[in-house]
Model the fold of this input.
Amino acid sequence: MVSRASIRQQVMKAPNKKNWIKGAIKRPGALRKKLNVKAGKKITTAQLNKALKSKNSRTRRQANLAKTLKKIRRS
Done:
């Protein structure tokens, strides 16, 4: 298991890296698999809202991150 401190150090090593958020996501595709959404399809807002009410805390955090990342727009 990787500690949060070591993840933070890895991200902070290259602050000018172009795709830094990609390196910060440690389980890419995990939420998609949990929600049974096929690759290439979008996770709907309704599915995210349902995942936010999950009993599993990791699922809730993943859904919250996905909702936050939806707001980020490329400049």
In short: The chain has a mean pLDDT of 82. The two ends are 35 Å apart (CA to CA).
